[in-house]
Amino acid sequence: MATQPVLSGSDLERTTIHKLRTTILPFVLLLFFVAYLDRINIGFAALSMNKDLGITSQQYGFLAGIFFIGYFIFEIPSNLLLQRVGARVWIARILLSWGVVAVLTGFAENIFQLYVLRFLLGVAEAGFFPGIILYFTYWFPRREQARAVACFMAANPVGNLVGAPLSGLILDHAHWAGMSSWRWLLVLEGVPAVVGGVLTYLLLPNGPEEATFLDAEEKAWLSEELARDRKLLGGVREMSAPEALRHRRVWHLAAIYFTMIVASYAMVFWMPQAIQSLASGGSNTTIGIVVMIPHLFGLIAMLLVSRNSDRTLERRRHTALPEIIGALALLVLAGAASGALLISVVLWALLAAGIYSAFGPFWSFPPEFLSGISAACAIALINSIGNLGSFVGPYIIGAISHRTGSLRGGLACAGLSLLISAALVLLLKEKGHDRAASWGRTQSGRTTDGPSSRAGKRPRSNVSRSPRVPS
Question: What average pLDDT does this structure show over 113-130?
Answer without folding.
Answer: 90
